[in-house]
Design goal:
Elements: H1 3-14, H2 37-47, H3 55-66, H4 75-84, E1 88-92, E2 117-122, E3 127-137, E4 143-147, E5 152-157, E6 169-176, E7 187-193, E8 196-201, E9 209-215, E10 222-227, E11 231-234, E12 242-251, E13 254-255, E14 264-265, E15 272-277, E16 282-286, E17 294-301, E18 307-313, E19 319-322, E20 330-339, E21 342-343, E22 351-354, E23 361-366, E24 371-375, E25 383-390, E26 396-401, E27 405-408, E28 416-425, E29 428-429, E30 436-439, E31 446-452, E32 455-460, E33 468-475, E34 482-487, E35 492-495, E36 503-512, E37 515-516, E38 524-527, E39 544-545
Antiparallel strand pairs: 1-6, 2-3, 2-6, 3-4, 4-5, 7-8, 8-11, 9-10, 9-12, 12-13, 12-14, 15-16, 16-19, 17-18, 17-20, 20-21, 20-22, 23-24, 24-27, 25-26, 25-28, 28-29, 28-30, 31-32, 32-35, 33-34, 33-36, 34-39, 36-37, 36-38
Helix pairs in contact: 2-3, 3-4
Length: 549
C-alpha cells in the first residue's frame, strides 16, 4: 500500500463530521504571535516525509515553527484551533476546470498565499479529510503544497483526492496574517440606529486599532475615527443619505487591506409627538420623515413581545390608531420609517400609554340634595373625574371620586346643567361623552298636614320656575307611593278621598316638562279624623300610579 493511500485511509478515520465555514472569524481575544512564513516553509521542507503522525500533526508543526500556537492531531481540530484563536480568515477556493482539477492562484487571488493551510472537505462524507501547506505557485501559476507522507515536497500542484470521487471535494484556505500583513477586517453588520449608523466587524489578530472610513457612492473615502473596539457608530450620517463603509486594521505602520461594504441608506428614526386615548383606541402621532415612503408600526403589550401591527403606505402619514386594545392595559409603540426595501432606525423606548374606556352615563336625576349621576365601572380605572357645565359655559371639574355614583350638592335650583365623566388609569384620562343635560329642580319642603272635615290638607314650600307639583300618598300596608294629584297652581292640596281612622303619608315632587324634582322619602304623616257627623262625599281626585321609588 502506498504512502498516499495509507494517509488517505487514516485521515478518514481521524476526521469528524463538520459543516464548512466560509468567511467567519471568531470574536475571541486576539493574540500577539507573529507568523513567520519562512520558518514554517523551512520546517515543511525538512519534515514533509519524516513519517511521524498524520497530515494535521504535520501542518500543525509547520505552523508552530512559524509562530502560530495552534495544534491538532485531527484535521477538524486544527481547523477549529485556527478559527477560534482568530489566526486567519476562511475562504472557499476555486478549482480550475471545475471540481476535478487543480488550484490556480489567478482563480483565488487574495484568498490564499504562501504559508496558508489548505483544508480538503469531502462532500460525500461531510468531513474534513486532509490538510496541506501552501508553498506559493509554480511558473504556470498553479498552487503548490507540502503534503505529509505523500509525494508533495513543495513542488507539486495541489489537486483532489480520488477517494470518494475526484469531483466531490471542496477546498478551503485559512489565510493567516504574517509579520508584514494584517487580515482584512470583515464587516459583519451595518445597522441604522437612533443616533446614526452602527458598523461592526470581526477582530483582527495583532491589530492595535481600526480606522473606519465612509464615502458616498462614487466619492472619496473619508476617515471617520480610529477605535480600539470592533464597532463604531457614525453619528454624522444624514437622513436619506447613502454610504459605503470600510475598516482597516492597523499595527504601527502596518495597515490591512480593506473591503468596501454594500451601499447602505440611512433612514433616521421618527420623532414621536403624542400617544393619546380616543373613543376608538390609542392614537399615536409622529413627525414626518422626509425620506420615508411609509411606516412600520410595532406594538408591545403588557407581558407580550414586540410585534408588527401595521404598515402604512405613504410618507405623509403621521398618525395611527390602534383599535385592538383593552381598558386598563399599557401599550408601547415603535415606528420605523421605510424607503423601498430599506427600513430605518427607531427609538428603542418608543412611546407608551394606558388605554381607558369611556364611561357611559346610566342616569342623571334630581336628588334630595342636588343632582345624582351614575355611570358604568371601567376596567383598570383608579378614579373618575366628574365634569359639569351650564349653558354657554365650558366644562368644569367638580369632583374626583373612586366609585361610580356622584351627587352634586352645589347645583342651583332652576339651572340647566350638563354632566359627563372621565375614567383615570395610572394618570391617563379616558375620553368622555357629550353628557346628559338636566334642569335642577329643588325638592319641595313639606310644611304641614291637617285633618279637616273636608279631608286632609297638605301644604309644602314653593319651588321657583316649575310647571307644577305631583302629590303622592301611601297608606299603611301600601307597597309604594301613588300619585293622587297634579297641582299646577299653588302649594296646597286637600285630599278628600280619605277614610276615617286611616293614617296617610304624603310627599311632593315639583316638575318642569318631563323632568321631576326629588322628593322627601320619609314624607309627612296625618291620620284622618272626621269631625262633622254629616257624611261628606269625596270628589274625584287625580289618582295615578307612579313608581316614585
Amino acid at each position: 500500500m502506498t504512502k498516499r493511500l495509507l494517509t488517505s485511509l487514516l485521515a478518514i478515520v481521524a476526521a469528524i463530521v463538520v459543516a464548512p465555514v466560509f468567511v467567519t472569524q471568531s470574536s475571541a481575544a486576539t493574540t500577539d504571535e507573529v507568523y513567520n512564513v519562512n520558518n514554517a516553509i523551512a520546517y515543511a521542507e525538512d519534515n514533509w516525509d519524516n513519517g511521524r503522525g498524520l497530515c494535521a500533526q504535520f501542518v500543525s508543526e509547520c505552523l508552530n515553527a512559524g509562530g502560530v500556537d495552534a495544534y491538532g492531531t485531527r484535521v477538524v481540530d486544527l481547523y477549529n484551533e485556527l478559527i477560534n484563536n482568530n489566526y486567519g480568515k476562511v475562504y472557499k477556493l476555486t478549482l480550475t476546470n471545475g471540481k476535478n482539477g487543480s488550484l490556480r492562484m489567478a482563480d483565488n487571488n487574495g484568498k490564499i498565499k504562501k504559508g496558508d493551510p489548505i483544508f480538503y472537505f469531502c462532500n460525500v462524507c461531510k468531513t474534513y479529510e486532509h490538510v496541506v501547506l501552501c508553498n506559493g505557485v509554480n511558473s504556470k501559476g498553479y498552487i503548490q503544497d507540502y503534503a505529509h507522507n505523500k509525494a508533495h515536497n513543495g513542488k507539486k500542484q495541489t489537486y483532489t483526492f480520488d477517494h470518494c470521487g475526484t469531483d466531490n471535494w471542496t477546498f478551503y484556505s485559512v489565510s493567516i496574517d504574517d509579520e508584514n500583513s494584517l487580515i482584512t477586517p470583515e464587516i459583519t453588520g451595518i445597522t441604522a440606529k437612533a443616533d446614526g449608523v452602527e458598523i461592526k466587524w470581526n477582530p483582527v489578530r495583532r491589530a492595535e486599532k481600526y480606522t473606519v472610513y465612509k464615502k458616498v457612492p462614487g466619492g472619496k473615502w473619508v476617515a471617520l475615527k480610529n477605535v480600539k473596539t470592533t464597532e463604531f457608530i457614525d453619528k454624522t450620517a444624514e437622513n436619506g443619505a447613502t454610504y459605503n463603509y470600510t475598516v482597516k486594521a492597523v499595527n504601527g505602520k502596518i495597515k490591512s487591506a480593506y473591503k468596501t461594504s454594500d451601499e447602505f441608506k440611512y433612514i433616521a428614526p421618527v420623532d414621536f409627538k403624542s400617544a393619546s386615548v380616543t373613543d376608538k383606541g390609542i392614537k399615536i402621532t409622529w413627525e414626518k420623515n422626509d425620506s420615508a415612503s411609509g411606516y412600520h408600526i410595532y406594538r408591545l403589550s403588557e407581558g407580550g413581545k414586540w410585534t408588527k401591527t401595521a404598515t402604512l403606505k405613504g410618507g405623509n402619514k403621521t398618525s395611527y390608531t390602534d383599535t385592538n386594545v383593552e381598558s386598563g392595559k399599557n401599550y408601547r409603540y415603535r415606528v420605523r420609517a421605510y424607503s423601498g426595501s430599506v427600513t430605518g432606525a427607531y427609538h428603542s423606548k418608543g412611546i407608551s400609554t394606558y388605554f381607558v374606556d369611556t364611561p357611559v352615563l346610566k342616569s342623571c336625576t334630581n336628588s334630595a340634595k342636588g343632582v345624582t349621576i351614575k355611570w358604568n365601572a371601567i376596567p383598570g380605572a383608579g378614579s373618575y373625574r366628574v365634569y359639569r357645565r351650564g349653558a354657554g359655559e365650558s366644562w368644569q371639574l367638580i369632583k374626583t371620586v373612586k366609585n361610580t355614583v356622584f351627587e352634586d350638592t352645589t347645583a342651583e335650583n332652576s339651572t340647566v346643567y350638563r354632566y359627563t365623566v372621565r375614567a383615570v388609569c395610572k394618570g391617563v384620562y379616558s375620553t368622555y361623552e357629550s353628557g346628559i343635560a338636566l334642569k335642577h329642580i329643588k325638592t319641595p319642603g313639606l310644611i304641614s298636614t291637617v285633618s279637616t272635615d273636608e279631608g286632609i290638607i297638605l301644604e309644602w314650600e314653593k319651588v321657583e320656575d316649575v310647571n307644577g307639583y305631583y302629590v303622592y300618598r301611601k297608606a299603611a300596608g301600601d307597597k309604594g307611593w301613588t300619585r293622587v294629584a297634579t297641582v299646577k297652581d299653588g302649594e296646597i292640596y286637600t285630599d278628600t278621598n280619605v277614610v276615617e281612622g286611616v293614617e296617610y303619608t304624603y310627599t311632593v315632587r315639583a316638575y318642569f316638562g318631563s323632568q321631576k324634582s326629588s322628593y322627601d322619602a320619609k314624607g309627612i304623616v296625618c291620620k284622618y279624623i272626621r269631625r262633622n257627623e254629616n257624611e261628606i262625599e269625596a270628589p274625584d281626585t287625580d289618582t295615578e300610579s307612579d313608581d316614585i321609588d
